[in-house]
Amino acid sequence: MERHSTVKSEWRNIKRQIARILVASAVISCFAGSLLQKAEAYTGLPVYFRDEIIKADKLYGLIPESIGQKNFSGCLTRGEFCDVVGQAYEYLVGDIPISGERVFSDTDSENVNKAYRLGIVSGYPDGTFRENRLITRQEMFTMIHNLMALVDNGIRMTTEDAREILSEYRDSGQVQDWAVIPTASMIRMGIVKGTDAKMLEPQSNTTYAQAIVLVNRAISYYDEENRDWVYTGPLDPEPSQEPQPQPTPAPSQLVLGDPMLNRVGYNDQKYILVFGSLSNSEYKSAAEAQKHMVTVTINVWKLNSSGQKVPGTLQVTVNKAIADRVKAIFQEIYDGPERFPIKSIGGYAWRSGTSEHSLGLAIDINPNENYMIRNDGTVVSGSFWKPGENPYSIPADGDVVRIFRKYGFAWGGNAWRSSRDYMHFSYFGE
User: Fold this and answer.
1) Which of 2, 228, 339, 348 has the highest CB neighbour number within 10 Å of its CB?
2) 385 and 263 in one domain?
3) Strand (E) positions, 245-289?
């Protein structure tokens, strides 16, 4: 980074002078007006992130136009996070011109191209970047780590040291090899803290608020002068102002954007999504259930007579409340590197008892090759489960299980003590 040192120093000084000017002029009416407009955009912002988000916005300019008017509880995409780290790079290093030649076949985004050429991000083996995919937490940790390495080469550590740091977290085994050192580095630097339950949730999606807060901490790590900066200006609209109605998100945004709905076990929120309240958790009859179902068409890979994977489609009937979620799941499976083949799928089916199939919240994939078996060895349904040997058997560490869990589904292969149901994915996990 020697070649950037002079530019970096100059830009830091300029940015700090600008920050002082902004802070000093917070009482000026025109500036106050802009603050009021931005304040109305702070929707869905957790109270405990308030000061960090405001600092990221007012001092560092980390909230680009692409996400500035969105609900902060929603999940952001890979492309949107490139916009955030692009702003951070400018603050820390300066806007060094980089060739605008197209890098990926599916995007010509300037910030995506720049992030790639700086070594902050990478694409997929097929030459795509998939900027509209929701970013995972471990992808975000890695990008922030790579950004910080451009400033001072980051923290150097061995893989062994990194795994020792991660061992304090219950789900450290879910961190993929390429993200082990970046994630551990973020923890050691105090940027990533994990959840109260000592979970990293590396394969979960991340909200706008979480992403901006982490990048804010990365900048603050270097910005000693403004490390304790706190905004004290006006935020709430003037009393004389009429409250502005907030647009209602589209159903797909409601379903896919709420991180609480993307976690296994957070069923209060899921009950409300499906039934509208916590007072109901079932349908009384097949006729009642069918009113809440919809049939969706999904893209899948199939095996032809020669054993080659070829594209195809299948239909599955599910609850309307999770229809967009189901389509997103199977599209990710279809787009994934594994290209897992699916020859049969089952969704809604009215059954006795408490089966989530009666609610349209459970999906069975390739049931013959992914059997249900009790702990005593009794096979209840299907013939076998032979991942790695049979192409239709679902690997425990493969794309299918990972992607379903990403969207809040439990897998019958490890969800219960009394049995294993390797074909089965359920939204309530009950």
Assistant:
1) 348
2) yes
3) none
Q: Which two tokens stand for residue 368?
A: 């013959």
Residue 61 CA: distances (Å) to CA of 92, 102, 162, 383, 430 = 12, 26, 32, 58, 44
SS3 34: helix
Q: Report the candidate in 163, 157, 101, 108 with the shortest Cα–Cα distance to residue 131.
A: 108
Q: 311 is written with which tokens? A: 């594209």
Residues 396 and 260 in one domain: yes
Q: For residue 240, what are the contacts with CB-CB under 8 A and spacing of at least 6?
A: none
Whole-number CA gyration radius for the chain: 24
Of 50, 69, 70, 73, nearest to 261 by C-alpha is 73
Residue 341 DSSP symbol: B
Same domain, yes or no: 392 and 279 = yes
Q: Which domain holds residue 275?
A: 254-426
Q: Which helix (H) or strand (E) holds 383?
A: strand 379-385
Residue 36 lies in a domain: yes
Position 265 in a domain: yes
Task: Tell me which long-range contacts 152-160 makes (C-beta under 8 A, separation of at least 24).
Answer: 152/1, 152/222, 153/1, 154/185, 155/185, 155/188, 155/189, 157/181, 157/184, 157/185, 157/188
Q: Are residues 290 and 213 in the same domain?
A: no
**Would you call 258 helix, strand, or coil by DSSP?**
coil
Structural domain total, the chain? 2
* Number of residues assigned to the chain: 430
Identify whether residues 409 and 267 lie together within a single domain.
yes
Q: CA nearest 382: which of 342, 343, 421, 340?
A: 421
**Would you say residue 182 lies in a domain?**
no
* 330 and 272 within one domain: yes
- CA nearest to 364, candidates 347, 340, 380, 381: 347
**Residue 147 counted as domain residue:** no
Tokens of 141: 């940790």
pLDDT in tens, the chain (430 residues): 443 444 444 544 544 454 444 433 332 332 333 333 343 456 666 666 778 888 888 888 888 777 766 677 778 889 999 889 988 888 888 876 676 678 888 888 888 888 888 889 988 888 899 888 888 899 999 999 998 888 876 567 889 999 999 998 888 888 999 999 999 999 988 888 766 557 888 888 888 888 888 999 988 888 888 877 877 765 544 333 444 444 444 444 556 666 678 778 767 788 888 888 777 778 888 889 999 999 999 999 999 888 899 999 999 999 999 999 999 999 999 999 999 999 999 999 887 667 889 999 999 999 999 999 998 899 988 999 999 999 999 999 999 999 999 999 999 998 777 889 999 999 988 6
